[in-house]
Design goal:
The complex is a heterodimer.
Chain A lengths: L3 E10 L2 E11 L5 E4 L6 H9 L6 E6 L13 E4 L11 H11 L4 H14 L15 H12 L6 E5 L7 H14 L4 E5 L3 H7 L2 E6 L2 E7 L6 E8 L4 H9 L4 E6 L4 E7 L5 H13 L3 E6 L3 H6 L1
Parallel strand pairs in A: 3-7, 3-8, 5-6, 6-7
Antiparallel strand pairs in A: 1-2, 1-4, 8-9, 10-12, 10-13, 11-12
Chain B lengths: L8 H18 L1 H29 L2 H11 L13 H21 L5 H6 L1 H6 L4 H34 L4 H32 L3 H25 L15 H4 L12 H20 L3
Helix pairs in contact in B: 1-2, 1-7, 2-4, 2-7, 4-7, 4-8, 7-8, 7-11, 8-9, 8-11
Classes of the chains: A alpha/beta, B mainly alpha.
């Protein structure tokens, strides 16, 4: 059974077509990225999945159930965009109440609230009120509430937006650690971040599904992304084209080449590239096996 | 990892109602509202209710009212076993619905504005959320009714200890009646607060709605007197008739607010199901 199944899904707002006839099937497993420019319909899709809004047309099921149905309580959780906790009550008391609603006893709910707060490094702020937290801390509390009861599916809408690098890394680590038991669907503009976390990428643009690709999909060709420091880029281009197995070399940005080549078991091409760089005394910044998500989506 | 089974919809309603009650009596703004409520009632109990009940018990008052309003017009006022409750009844019949418009004005509006309802609807159905919040508000108001009745009993006992049992039985009937009276008001505030952006806006909506509906019904009744039953659609329409009733007799009017509550809650439930959160 598909984790998420969308059939001819559309959502019209009074002045806008937010989602246009989306057909999509996603399976449980590694984290899934939801990518697209502002206004592409990512948050609308999230809101439909959470049952916050109703589709104008088409159908949507999560594990075979309609969004908002009883069967999904405690199974699906989310970090909704711009949602805040009640400012009058402590964070722990609100998270504890959420856990109670999910079926935890009072004592277990208290423990669960502290457990998820500890996951986001906020155990010491348990007795604080939401108003006293910074934006980043509030975001982490909202992520903590999404982890109560270890749900099977967690939707994270811009989970690291507004977080400092250290905390953003921490959130990425949490997603990695929990992704064996939980399927995360993550919406973000940070392609580097998604690249590190996700396998499947869903790309939306102007309400339409443009691509649904797997980053690690097995194909006949492979890629190397070579980022250089100062060198003669045109000469490097010609030299790279002359290497064995190379199919195409594409310049990406001022200092970067994406080399497409026939898949091979050994590291022959990497060795050729390093020999070439050594011979010409060209200094490189990075050699990446594969393509960046940006390249995958927009090349 | 701990696997738990989500509670039933009915359990969710109970949990949400209990949480609403706790919220009201544990946060600072709730406590301020409660203290204001208690002060108003303390003033009412110490001055109008205490002195008016002494006045009612006077031998000349009955003949005075009969001369003024006609024989039998307020006869039930003198049938109350404990005079203080006769005056309490008059005040409470109008004050509790008025309190209800303000106390129950923020069932959903603030939470909807800041997105907090989104955290809840991931865990409970929209129906449970709607009825749970409504039930919570009814529990809060029941607590306030009981509180004022206990204060009235205490005041009665300072005058005459032998009135303890009559006070208790009268209080029980008054409590049930008042609970039923505030039901449609609370349901209407649940509906309005779903639509409003703040508690204040919900209260303003309520005042406008009550005034508008009253004017429209008045105009319809003026043009078509045969449609006089139309005013029964407005919550509180039976209150003026209930003044001159007491005890079990007051319960004869209960079908009107109960029916209004069912209809308003039905509408609110539909709105809750269809609202974008």
């Amino acid at each position: 059974m598909s984790l998420i199944q969308c059939n001819n899904l559309s959502k019209h707002y009074p002045n806008k077509l937010a989602l246009d006839n989306i057909n999509l099937s996603l399976d449980a497993g590694a984290p899934i990225a939801l990518v697209g420019p502002n206004g592409a319909g990512k948050t609308t899709l999230f809101s439909l999945l959470c049952g916050y809004i109703q589709p104008t047309q088409g159908s949507l099921t999560i594990l075979g159930h309609a969004p908002g149905s009883k069967a999904l309580q405690g199974v699906l959780s989310a970090l909704p965009q711009d949602a805040e906790l009640d400012p009058h009550f402590t964070i722990a008391s609100q998270l504890q109440f959420f856990a109670t609603l999910q079926g935890f006893s009072q004592a277990d709910a208290k423990q669960e609230a502290l457990r998820v707060l500890a996951l986001v490094d906020l155990a010491e702020s348990a007795q604080a009120k939401p108003k006293s937290l910074s934006h980043g801390m509030s975001k982490r509390v909202s992520i903590a509430q999404a982890l109560i009861g270890s749900p099977s599916i967690v939707l994270l809408d811009e989970p690291t937006a507004g977080l400092d690098p250290a905390n953003a890394k921490k959130i990425r680590q949490i997603v990695k650690d929990l992704s064996n038991d939980t399927t995360f669907l993550i919406s973000s503009h940070n392609l580097d971040e998604l690249e590190k976390l996700c396998d499947q990428v869903v790309y939306l643009e102007q309400g339409k599904l443009q691509q649904s690709v797997s980053i690690k999909a097995s194909q006949a060709t492979d890629f190397i992304t070579l980022t250089m420091q100062v060198c003669d880029m045109d000469s490097l281009h010609q030299q790279l084209l002359g290497l064995n197995q190379v199919i195409e070399v594409k310049r990406s940005g001022d200092e970067q080449y994406v080399i497409e080549y026939q898949k091979q078991r050994n590291f022959e091409l990497e060795q050729q590239i390093l020999s070439l760089l050594a011979e010409k005394q060209w200094r490189y910044k990075a050699i990446l096996k594969g393509r960046t998500l940006e390249e995958t989506l927009f090349s | 990892m701990q696997h738990v089974t989500p509670p039933s919809g009915l359990s969710h309603i109970g949990l949400l109602a209990k949480y609403e009650l706790t919220k009201r009596f544990t946060n600072k703004s709730g406590m301020v509202a409660l203290i204001a409520f208690m002060l108003i009632w303390a003033i009412l109990l110490l001055y109008p209710i205490k002195s008016a009940s002494e006045f009612i018990m006077g031998p000349n008052f009955r003949s005075f009212t009969e001369a003024l309003f006609g024989p039998g017009s307020l006869q039930h006022l003198f049938e109350w076993p404990v005079a203080e409750f006769a005056v309490f009844w008059l005040a409470a019949l109008y004050l509790f619905p008025m309190f209800s418009i303000f106390i129950a004005a923020d069932q959903f509006s603030s939470d909807k504005q800041r997105g907090s309802l989104r955290f809840l609807t991931l865990r409970v159905s929209r129906g449970s959320l709607f009825f749970g919040r409504f039930a919570g508000q009814m529990l809060i108001q029941l607590s306030l009714i009981i509180l004022t009745l206990l204060a009235t009993i205490a005041m009665v006992l300072t005058r005459d200890m032998s009135l303890f049992i009559p006070s208790l039985t009268t209080s029980l009937l008054v409590m049930v009646n008042l609970f039923i009276v505030v039901l449609p008001y609370t349901a209407a505030m649940a509906l309005l607060s779903l639509h409003a952006n703040s508690a204040r806006q919900a209260s303003i909506f309520a005042i406008i709605l009550w005034a508008l509906v009253s004017i429209i019904i008045g105009l319809i009744n003026f043009k078509f007197p045969q449609l006089s039953g139309l005013n029964m659609i407005l919550p509180g329409s039976q209150i003026s008739s209930m003044i001159n009733t007491q005890g079990l007799g007051s319960l004869a009017y209960s079908p009107i607010p109960l029916l209004q509550t069912v209809v308003i809650l039905g509408l609110g439930y539909l709105l809750m199901k269809r609202s974008a959160l």
